[in-house]
Structures are given as structure tokens and as C-alpha cells.
Design brief:
Blueprint lengths: L7 E4 L14 E4 L8 H18 L3 E5 L1 H13 L4 E6 L9 H17 L2 E4 L2 H9 L8 E2 L18 H11 L6 E6 L8 H14 L3 E6 L6 H9 L6 E4 L5 H7 L2 E4 L8 H8 L4 E4 L4 H4 L6 E4 L4 H12 L2 H18 L2 H16 L5
Parallel strand pairs: 1-2, 3-4, 4-5, 5-6, 7-8, 7-10, 8-9, 10-11, 11-12
Length: 356
């Protein structure tokens, strides 16, 4: 991007956090709260308007719901000619009543303010069109989906890393490691995963559960309560900046979400040569080819998830064949070079021949 444009990244990065972009790009930290916070949101909106007007951007692209709403509003007010938002999942899908209506309205406002809409999976785009959030003519998917693809030089099978992580966590080579990697909250289905694993480990004693990600709202305590006696077979890691290490150490990735835009962890795990088991929802069905690169079950079906865990734990031949096809598909269809090239072509057509 920097070979063609002057790039500025704006994100909510607190003091002491690592710089989220390379040294050549400008970076500005703006406090943007994840939950609805009217006062802080207005302050953030005013700050974005100030920054955008001062910088006279040719284009602004936003990602995530709250940042998207604020960035698209600020860009519209500042008359930025090219305003791009990428939808990566809908918070309101699992909500009811007024909360669902308000959050859905926010997505409609984002879509109205944007001049171009990107969606990170084909099935999510179909859903947004059916819900009247976006139009077919205004929205598109880069390649076959994802935000930026998967870096195959980073996410790959690594026997040395696998041994090191197993030693660190107290796992053995003859144990089957099921991995969940992401934020711990109800919408991600981690409580269902705990219940399903407790049932699976009762039948397959060499199964292990590895949970990597930040806890939101005390979910870990609830997971441990649901696991009961099976908690001794689980390990929790609160934070990592090397997710590829845990994927290389795992045998199966678990994504039991109730909502998901695409499921980037699925293709990252696939590039590491491991299959996934995920819920049959939009976004995840684009990342997992059922019975080819992984298994699917109905969201919320604990018995179905437990059955899939047992099937994969007891059939190493199936795991290897699914993992091999998953890696082949990840490198073929979701390589970062391909997705980034698609984005560059899209942006060039939207902006024109503008140079630095």
C-alpha cells in the first residue's frame, strides 16, 4: 500500500501497547470504546473529524462495527470522496428486542454513509442483502473471503514448535489437542465447547482442550464449572501474539460460534495443516468445507459438537486427510498475497491513479 499511497492507521491503542503498523506508516491512537458509550463515542467522533479534515484523506476504510460507524460518519461529514467499510460479522444476530434494533440500525447507517461496501465472506454478504443492510450493487467480497488472507510463511506445520508447546503445557504426543483461539464470550459458543468436551473426554481419555484468548466477563470460571472433573484436561492461555504456535501444537481447531463474519482462525489453522470443527452458520460455512476440510454442526447443539469431537479424536486418518485438504485449500484460495492484491485492485479502481 505504501508504494502507492501515503498510509495512516488509526486504532485504539493504549499506553504500553505495541505499535500495530510498520514504521513507515503514520499511526494515530484514538480511544474508541467497544460497548456503546455516548460521551466517549461523541469525543471519538469529534477527534476523527478533526483528524480527517486536517489530513484531507482521499479514502478512508473502516473495520469493526463501532469504529466503522464513527469513521464513516466522520468521513461523510468531512466529505472524503471514497468511504469504504468492511463488514466482518453482525453483533445484532444474537440479540433480541431494542438492542437488536439499535445495533442493526447502526449497520444500516454505516452502509448508507459508505460509498463502497466490502464483506469478508460470500454467505455473510447474502445475509446482509436479505436483511436489507446492503445492496448487491454496492457490496462485494475480495476473492473467496477474509479480511487479508493467511500468511503461509507464518502459519504452517512446525514439528519443533509443536513439541515445545506440548512440553510447556504438559501434553504428550499421543494426546489429541482441541484448540479454541479467540475472545471468551457467550457468542463464541465457548460454554457449549466446555460442555461438549466434558462429554467427549469421558469417552476419549487422551483428548485435551487448549483455550487461548482473553476472558470477557468471567467466562473462564463458568467454563471450568461446566467442565467439572474434565477441567484437569484443559489448559487456558489468556494472551498470545503468536497464535501460529498454538495452532502448530493442536490437532483440531474448534469454532462453536453463534455469529461469525468469516472465521479467519479456520484458514490460519488450515494453513498449519489442521482441520476445524465449527458451527453451521454464515461465515463459518465459507471457511470450512464440510467433510472435506472439517466438520460442521448446528450452532448450540452440544451433543452434535461432542459427537464431532469424539469422531475426530478417535480417527487419526480422518484428521490427517481433512487437515491435508484444509492446508491445500488455504494456500490456494486464501493466501495473503492473493487477497491483498484483490484489495489493491479494488482500491485502485475506487480511487484512481492517485500516487503518494
Amino acid at each position: 500500500m505504501q508504494e502507492r499511497y501515503a498510509v495512516t492507521a488509526i486504532a485504539n491503542a493504549g499506553a504500553g501497547e505495541s505499535r500495530p503498523v510498520g514504521p513507515e506508516a503514520d499511526f494515530i491512537s484514538v480511544r474508541i470504546e467497544r460497548p456503546i458509550a455516548p460521551f466517549h463515542d461523541l469525543v471519538a467522533l469529534a477527534r476523527l473529524v478533526q483528524l480527517i479534515r486536517k489530513s484531507r484523506f482521499v479514502a478512508v476504510q473502516s473495520l469493526t462495527p463501532k469504529a466503522g460507524l464513527l469513521a464513516m460518519l466522520a468521513s461523510l461529514v468531512s466529505r472524503v470522496p471514497v468511504r469504504v467499510h468492511m463488514f466482518t460479522g453482525q453483533v445484532w444476530v444474537t440479540r433480541r428486542g431494542a438492542a437488536r434494533w439499535i445495533l442493526k440500525l447502526m449497520d444500516r447507517v454505516i452502509a448508507k454513509c459508505a460509498t463502497h461496501i466490502l464483506v469478508d465472506s460470500p454467505s455473510q454478504r447474502d445475509f446482509l442483502i436479505s436483511q436489507g443492510i446492503v445492496s448487491a450493487g454496492k457490496s462485494r467480497v475480495l476473492g473467496k473471503g477474509s479480511v487479508s488472507g493467511v500468511d503461509a510463511s507464518r502459519f504452517r506445520p512446525n514439528a519443533g514448535t509443536r513439541r515445545a508447546v506440548h512440553e510447556q503445557l504438559g501434553f504428550h504426543d499421543d494426546q489429541v489437542v482441541f484448540l479454541y483461539l479467540g475472545r471468551l464470550n457467550r457468542d463464541k459458543g465457548v460454554l457449549d465447547l466446555a460442555a461438549a468436551f466434558a462429554r467427549a473426554v469421558a469417552a476419549v481419555h487422551d483428548a485435551r482442550l487448549l483455550v487461548v484468548g482473553p476472558d470477557e466477563g468471567g467466562i473462564r470460571i463458568r467454563m471450568e464449572a461446566i467442565l467439572g472433573g474434565a477441567a484437569v484436561y484443559a489448559r487456558f492461555v489468556t494472551y498470545t501474539d503468536c497464535p501460529e504456535d498454538y495452532m502448530a501444537a493442536a490437532d483440531v481447531l474448534c469454532l462453536p460460534s453463534y455469529r461469525e463474519g468469516f472465521g479467519v482462525t479456520v484458514i490460519e489453522a488450515a494453513a498449519c495443516g489442521i482441520p476445524s470443527i465449527g458451527s453451521r452458520i454464515y461465515g463459518v460455512t465459507d471457511a470450512i468445507e464440510e467433510n472435506s476440510t472439517g466438520l460442521l454442526f448446528e450452532a448450540g447443539d452440544v451433543e452434535g459438537l461432542a459427537s464431532g469431537l469424539i469422531r475426530l479424536a478417535t480417527n487419526p486418518t480422518l484428521r490427517r486427510s481433512l487437515g491435508s485438504r484444509a492446508r491445500e485449500r488455504a494456500l490456494r484460495d486464501f493466501g495473503s498475497e492473493f487477497i491483498v492484491a484483490e484489495f489493491q485492485r479494488f482500491l485502485a479502481s475506487a480511487i484512481g491513479p492517485t500516487r503518494r
